[in-house]
Amino acid sequence: MVRDGAGFIEIDDVAAERRLQGNPYLEFLRVPSMSAGLYVLPAGGADAQLPHKQDELYYVIRGKARMQAGPHDQAIGRGSLVFVAANVEHRFHRIEEELEILVFFAPAESE
Predict the structure, then answer these.
(1) What are phi and psi of 13, to 5 degrees?
(2) Which of 27, 63, 80, 91 could bridge 99 with an S-S bond, Cβ 3.0-4.6 Å?
(3) pTM assigned to the model
């Protein structure tokens, strides 16, 4: 998808591939300075992620839930942006509507 330092990605194509793979998360971009993926959690589902070694930025495409990040807990929904620094405990909870979230890691998430 990314060649010669540039690339064009259609989120609908990423979403279709994620559904085919059956995983909640699909990475669609990886360069040394960052990685990006699509994360989907069902209504009533659980987010079992652990803190990451990278800074993260979440952009909620659709859905409705709450997010706990460090000592903060807030309602999030379509259009919400959430920054979480490296090693900070965080998770989505009380997921009322299926969440579809773009996730950006900087630098790229380690394996």
Answers:
(1) -65, -40
(2) 63
(3) 0.92
Read off the pLDDT of residues 45-86 as tens digits, 9 standing for 90 and up: 999 999 999 999 999 999 999 999 999 999 999 999 999 999
Cβ(73)–Cβ(67) below 8 Å = yes
Q: How many domains does the chain have?
A: 1
Domain containing 68: what range? 2-106
Q: Do residues 90 and 101 touch, judged by C-beta distance below 8 A?
A: no
At position 87, the amino acid (one-letter code) is N
For residue 66, what is the domain's CATH number?
A: 2.60.120.10
Which residue matches tokens 């090693």? 87
Kind of pairing between the strands at 55-69 and 25-31? unpaired
Q: Are 43 and 98 in contact (CB under 8 A)?
A: yes
Distance CA 42, CA 98 (A): 4
